Amino acid sequence: MNIAITALVLFGVFAVLLILGCPISISIAISSIATTLVNLPWDQTSFIVMQKMNSGVESFSLLAVPLFILAGNIMNNGGIARRLIRFAQLLSGRIPGSLAHTNVLANMFFGALSGSAVAAASAIGGIMAPMEEEEGYDPAFATCVN
Question: What is the predicted pLDDT for the residue at 13?
């Protein structure tokens, strides 16, 4: 099959689905499957799609992220996060913007303990974001600092 026709089908179906208001992820999936169906018979297409879906699920890095967030929530409920925040507040002192400094220090300490930046951001951010908003910080700034 000609590569120009393949590209036309891929981008044409994608554009039509976007114009119709279909979500981007579904538009990408449908346009990819339509392009594969134009180029290959149904049995080969179904085999390739199932093989790619299976290899995508077997990713250990995708499994690690929710488990690190779970570890962060367990440490948060155990009180480690609050103790680290109090320790970071002692170190940052009473300087202007000390709550943002406390957020960075607490994330650094929590990340060193848990081994995951994702767990640190979810655990410390859940505590620090309301504290920062209460002190008058912009929510976007608090999220960026976290």
Answer: 94
Contact (CB, 8 A) for 120 and 110:
yes
The 10s digit of each residue's pLDDT in 99-113 is: 888 888 888 888 887
Q: Which of 26-35, 75-84, 109-118 ranks highest by mean pLDDT? A: 26-35
Hey, what amino acid is at 32? S
How far lies 115's CA from each of 64, 96, 130, in Å?
11, 30, 24
DSSP state of 22: -
- Within 10 angstroms of residue 62's Cβ, the number of other Cβ atoms is 10
The CA distances from residue 95 to 31, 92, 100, in Å, are 54, 7, 10
Q: 3-state DSSP call for residue 49?
A: helix
Cβ–Cβ < 8 Å for 123, 97:
no
Contact by Cβ (8 Å): 81, 75 = yes
- Residue labelled with tokens 């093989």: 51
